[in-house]
Amino acid sequence: MRASLIQIAVDLEESVNSRRERVASLVTAQRGVDLVVLPELWPVGAFAYQAFAEEAEPLQGPTHDVMAKAAAEAGVWLHAGSFVERAEDGTLYNTSLVFSPQGERSAVYRKIHRFGFDQGEAVMMGAGEELVTVTLPQTTLGLATCYDLRFPEQFRGLVDAGAETLVVAAGWPERRRAHWTLLAQARAVENQAYVLALGTAGTHADVPQAGHSIVVDPWGEVLAEAGPDEEILTVEFDPSKVHTTREQFPALKDRRLGLTPPRL
């Protein structure tokens, strides 16, 4: 299986419409790969909180339509990263979309864990409530977004739902880049799954981004890693290795659930 992770540099001097069209052209240029992944909140910038309300879109808005067309033109499965969705009730969500090679919407994932510690995204956006997987011909994707990476129970839930390849679209800050790499490898090892973790480049609202998107195999080995700048990271991996790894080292079978909590 061949995947291209497009590590976009988000320059807030570039208009949202211009970036949307530029990114669509990058996607269509990936014709011949199986899966293309985009990062978190690339239309507006993950830390550009002041733009969230102004640039919010309905679910089937401009980003949806441009990305659907790009997926169909390239003939690829497209994880279109995330954008600021304004739901019918007015609530904002950090929402990811997945499109089939025919340009049909196959999945919607609203970010479950909102970052900000009672400010920023944590108070401006609603929280998603559902784990989301997408079945491709070669593998089943489990979807997560940025801050979700710090919550292993979400990924274990995705694995229980059949996920074999965990896709994390992010806008991760440079000052915590060491955590980014460490957590991506940890999620791969503990779940015996591939992790495709894609960040952004550039600076969002004075917050330098980590870049360094990474692909990790089920043993925790790094198959490919990007640098700090805008880059397309293309990697080939064998989805059957997930099954092989889980057979050779069946740690997931030894889980003990429902343990009694300590008495206080």
UniProtKB/TrEMBL annotation:
The CN hydrolase domain, residue ranges: 1-239
Membrane-traversing stretches: none
Protein keywords: Hydrolase
Gene3D superfamilies registered for this protein in UniProt: Carbon-nitrogen hydrolase
Keyword Hydrolase in record: yes
GO molecular function: hydrolase activity
Entry annotated with the keyword DNA-binding: no
Domain of life: Bacteria
PANTHER family: DEAMINATED GLUTATHIONE AMIDASE, NITRILASE-RELATED
Protein family: Belongs to the carbon-nitrogen hydrolase superfamily. NIT1/NIT2 family.
Protein name (record): Carbon-nitrogen family hydrolase
